[in-house]
Structures are given as C-alpha cells and as structure tokens.
Write a structure and sequence with these properties.
- By secondary structure, this protein is of the alpha/beta class.
- Helix 1 (16-29) crosses helix 2 (44-52), helix 3 (71-80) packs across helix 4 (98-109) and helix 12 runs parallel beside helix 13 (254-262).
- Helix 6 (145-155) links the parallel strand 7 and strand 8.
- It contains 13 helices and eleven strands.
- The strands form two sheets. Strands 1, 2, 3, 4, 5, 6, 7, 8 and 11 form a nine-stranded parallel sheet that branches.
C-alpha cells in the first residue's frame, strides 16, 4: 500500500515549473505528499515532471476526473513513473450513475494500476465503501471531524483517509467567512454530491443555499497558527491519516512550522 504520511499539501495556482520547485522544497521540509489539482483538465504531464524533478515526495492527482481523462493515459503515466511516487487520485464522475462510472474506470486500469496505488475522491457511504474495496482509501473535502470519524468506521483500520482541508489564516471571523464564501465552497455547494454530503453532516438546504455562517464555520479551519494546528490535530484524532493543507491559504512562513507541529 502507498502509505500516506501525516501532512500533505496542495496549491491551486502552480504552473509546472513552480510545482517542481514547490515539491522540491516541501520534500526537504518533510511533507509526505503534494496533491496537484486536476481542475477541468488533464494534469498527468505536470505530475510526471514533478515526480522526475524530486526524489522521494509522493505526488498525487487530486483529483483526475474519470469523465475527462482517458483511462489509457492514466495507465501509461503510472507505468512510466517510479513505483510508489505517483498516487493515482480519481473522482469526478458526476453523471447519472457516478458509482458505476467509477467502477467501470477502475476495471479498465485494474491490471496496470494496483488498488494500493490509487485513492478515490469519496464522500457518501457507497463511495467510501468503493474506496475501501477498490483503492487504498479516500480523499474527501469540505467535511467535519464527525464526518471523518464516521468515514473511518466505514473504511475500517486498513484503508487510508486523506482529508483536504479548507484553511483560512484569518483571526477575524467576518474576514474568514468572506474569504471562505469567495472560494471553492460556493461552487461546490451547487454540485449534487457535495450538497448531499452537507445534508448528511446535518446542514440544511437553507444553510447550503445561503452559505450560512453555520456551514462556513463548520467546514473551515481558521485562526492564527496555533488555532489552525489545534484544529488540524482534531481531524487527525478523528481518524484522518493525512491532513492536506492548501498552501495558498496560509502564510509562507507557516510551511516549515506546520511540519514541526504535525509530523
């Protein structure tokens, strides 16, 4: 199994050269994994460049959309890179039958990309079960610590749980809420899978539609450095093997300090 260390990172605005440089720096600092967002396209070439430009840090696709990236390209990229360096993060099945679509995709890569090398962007119980049964674990986003505890129960003790955090380095609650509402939360709240998961976590339709204070506060890690670290530790204690911090959401001087505090 591709073992995930306690601290991972992502960054939403890195081009290929910047991603290589950032990965090399994170590797030296002691981060376990750099998650490279797939966005609406195919970032396999960028992942390959980052793997080749570093020596040991894991590089994960977070997330490759199975609706957009052909399985043959994933197979080719995985075969071309050193074992254990590329964590194949898959998701993005947003059609009428997302579970079936993801299952079919996994069938297509089964012989070339082992379950131990892949992780699924799973939110609901059935997707978590699929991540448990056909991958090394799950990679959810915008979740509470209670969700993490329940996801751990579904996954069991073996599969891994990497949780992408929504972090805002602001000590003023109004400023934090403004930043959070202008980020990815607004878009993702309109997607059926995320909205359904918000409801499962106890948020109402009104919370979701209005991006209420209750919703924003419940899904955002915020405050000064000590407050953020304390909250990240709560997610680890709830069952997350790895917390993934968006580096563009925290001050540059926090990067090494997060390793000291969490690893």
């Amino acid at each position: 199994m591709t073992k995930l260390g306690p601290l991972g990172a992502t960054h939403s605005t890195l081009d290929t050269d910047a991603a290589v440089a950032t990965a090399a720096e994170l590797e030296e600092l002691g981060y376990a994994t750099l998650w490279l967002a797939g966005g609406q396209g195919n970032n396999l070439p960028r992942i390959a460049e980052v793997v080749r430009g570093t020596s040991r840090i894991q590089v994960a696709s977070g997330i490759l959309s199975v609706d957009r990236v052909p399985s043959a390209e994933v197979v080719a990229a995985y075969a071309d890179l050193p074992a254990g360096r590329f964590v194949v993060g898959l998701g993005g099945a947003h059609g009428a039958r997302p579970l079936a679509a993801l299952n079919d995709y996994l069938d297509e890569i089964e012989q070339a990309v082992p379950p131990t090398a892949r992780i699924l962007s799973a939110l609901g119980p059935r997707m978590l079960e699929l991540a448990r049964d056909r991958a090394s674990g799950a990679y959810p986003y915008l979740v509470t610590t209670d969700y993490v505890a329940s996801a751990r129960e579904i996954l069991g003790t073996g599969p891994q749980l990497a949780v992408l955090m929504n972090v805002v380095a602001a000590t003023d609650v109004a400023a934090m809420r403004d930043v959070a509402r202008r980020g990815s939360l607004k878009f993702l709240a309109g997607l059926p899978g995320y909205a359904a998961n918000f409801r499962r976590m106890g948020f109402t339709d009104a919370d979701i539609a209005d991006l209420s204070d209750r919703l924003v506060d419940g899904l955002t890690v915020w405050g000064d450095f000590d407050a953020v670290v304390a909250r990240l530790r709560e997610y680890r204690a709830a069952g997350a093997d790895q917390v993934v911090v968006p580096l563009d959401g925290v001050p540059r001087e926090w990067w090494p300090e997060l390793v000291k505090a969490l690893v």
